[in-house]
Amino acid sequence: MQDKQTNPIPEADVTNAARLANIIRRTSLEMVHAAGMGHPGGDLSSADIIAALFSGVLQIDPLNPRMPNRDRFILSKGHCSAALYATLAETGFFPRAWLSDYMKPLSLLNGHPDRNKLPGVEANTGPLGHGLPIGTGAAKAAKLLQAAWRVFVLTGDGELQEGSNWEAAMAAAHFELDNLTVIVDRNRLQQGEETERTVRLEPLAERWRAFGWAVKEIDGHDIPALLSTLRSAPFEPGKPNCVIAHTHKGRGVSFIEDRVEWHHRVPTTEELAAALKELAGANA
Question: Does the CA dihedral 166-220-269-254 come out positive or negative?
């Protein structure tokens, strides 16, 4: 059962996050089309989560991206880099003009994020299962330094088949890292197949709880719920936080949504035009 959120969220915060999510969807599709490669299904499923984080949760400064007390966001599902790059450009970490170089040879905008090349990228990700271990180390560092900054890690659900995630989950609970939040983009599809037909994840919430985490389940496209839930961490003192965000792969575009082939399919010119028209209507 999904938790119902009751904390009121200012309407302006919801509007700003929804606007950013729509920009992420439109921009990432344009980037994938121009590059001729990418992972649009996951870009679209995670857009609302990333928008909520960057517009109303993370304590960050685009003009000072390495400030010591910033919150850390790690995109563990690094193949969805277009969504992250669109967000960073829109929120002022670098010029939007850079997006046209997405995946070009020697581009700063690799297919997978590189912290050595772009401001706002906290960790090099792409090999799945690495983001949560990195985030666990960062959260432990904050505890050792008695620092107030927090760590948020966005994982894919298929990615949870990597054992390194569960090693990190055990360590995070052992060290009582309640400054660490993992958000699972639970769209139930991975490359080529449904997650439950590949390696069964359910009962997913109970698995996280068994590892010692405080867990909340929400609609990952419900922006007020996302803002309320992510702002309310830690959920229980002394426990790391897990948000299972139930989403739809390809959210926002009818002919992409819940279609496994759009994990890495590139839209044609006609499909891009149709998708952008749908998204423009959603933002009207």
Answer: positive
Beta-strand pair 72-75/189-190: unpaired
Q: What is the pLDDT of residues 240-257, one digit of tens each?
A: 999 999 999 999 999 999
Domain definitions of the chain by residue range: 11-282
**Is residue 14 classed as helix, strand or coil in its secondary structure?**
helix
CA dist., res. 170 & res. 172, Å (int): 6
Alpha-helical runs (H) found in 81-149: 81-90, 131-145
* Fold (topology level) of 11-282: Rossmann fold (3.40.50)
Instruction: Encode pLDDT of 227-239 as tens digits.
Output: 999 999 999 999 9
Q: How far is residue 58's CA from residue 150's CA, in Å, rounded to a whole number?
A: 8
Strands 180-186 and 151-156: parallel
Are 84 and 113 in contact by the 8 Å Cβ rule? The answer is: yes
Confidence of residue 5 (pLDDT cuts 50, 70, 90): very low
The residues, any chain, with a CB within 8 Å of residue 57's CB and separated by 6 or more, are 71, 152, 227, 230, 231
Pairing of strands 151-156, 72-75: parallel
